[in-house]
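Lab notebook, bench 4. Still working through the backlog of constructs that have no structural model yet. Next entry is a single chain of 64 residues. Request: give me the structure tokens for it.
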Amino acid sequence: MGRGITHRHRQAHTVLPGENLAPYAGEVFGRVTSSGHLRGLPRQEFLFQLAELYCDMNVLSSVP
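Model written out:
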């Protein structure tokens, strides 16, 4: 589930340009929805996806 997607956006940039906010947020929340909101995942997969989501939230909160 989207493991490469989140890393692509966080290469060397910590600030997401404003014009990319809506598409990136749609991508992030789409992955959460398609995963069943992280419910019922094995512990290891849950933690991996939660960590990715946390990083994505940091990127979204960095929009100037």
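Notes after review: Confidence is low (pLDDT under 50) at residues 1-10. The two ends are 28 Å apart (CA to CA). Flag for follow-up if needed.
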